[in-house]
Amino acid sequence: MALPLPPWRPLIRAAQQREGRSPAARWLQLATVALDGTPRVRTLVFRGWGGPDQVDLLTDARSAKAPELERQPAVELCWLMPKAKQQFRLRGRWQPGSEVVAAERQRHWQQLSSSGRALWAWPAPGRPWLPSDCFVEELPAEAAIPEHFQLLRLQIERVEQLDLGQHPHLRLSWCREQQWRPLRLRP
């Protein structure tokens, strides 16, 4: 039996729909803690829901995110949808691989465009640029999945919505341990 959707999921979907075809509907920022204890934020592409309260993202395991998440799996996502005038902050934890995640990793690989798959054939990110670097433009679906192609499945534990279209702004919060009951907060 499928679990019911948390009440914040339809709000995110409605905001995405108001964004239309804008890339902002899929771009979100991931905050992690670097190995030296300082904060890091980067933009990732929303790849779908792994469950009612699980977000799927993709990353290159050769990037700095991988050791950061292994050391500190707690993260926060900030998803600003400017046309919809909505901001969602989703706090949770990275869920390391399992058989389910392995199968989902394969599905996500197949769903990428050939140019999207090509990114994982590029040299390791964040390293110095070399004149010999080769940047593949396309990679077919039947290409082997690189080891560093990583599915980040995040288990969401808390969500905050800030509706910037109202005055005063509407701010709501939901916590998993509170069975996702809404709590109105001061903006």
Helix content: 10-25%
Specify the number of helices.
Answer: 4
Mean pLDDT: 94
Measure the end-to-end span: 37 Å
Q: Characterize the largest beta sheet: strand count, sense, and whether it forms a barrel.
A: 9 strands, antiparallel
Uncertain residue segments = none
Following the backbone from N to C, one meets helices and strands in this order, namely: HEEEEHEEHHEEE
Identify the overall geometry. globular
Secondary-structure content class: alpha+beta
What is the number of strand segments?
Answer: 9
Residue share in β-strands: 35-45%
Rg from Cα:
18 Å
What's the SSE blueprint?
Layout: H1 8-19, E1 27-33, E2 39-45, E3 48-51, E4 54-60, H2 65-71, E5 74-81, E6 86-95, H3 99-111, H4 114-118, E7 149-163, E8 170-175, E9 182-185
Antiparallel strand pairs: 1-2, 1-5, 3-4, 4-7, 5-6, 6-7, 7-8, 8-9
Describe what you observe in this structure.
The protein has 187 residues and is α+β, with helices and mostly antiparallel strands. It is 20% helix and 36% strand. The protein is built from 4 helices and 9 strands. Strands 1, 2, 3, 4, 5, 6, 7, 8 and 9 form a 9-stranded antiparallel sheet that branches. A hairpin with a 4-residue loop joins strand 5 and strand 6.
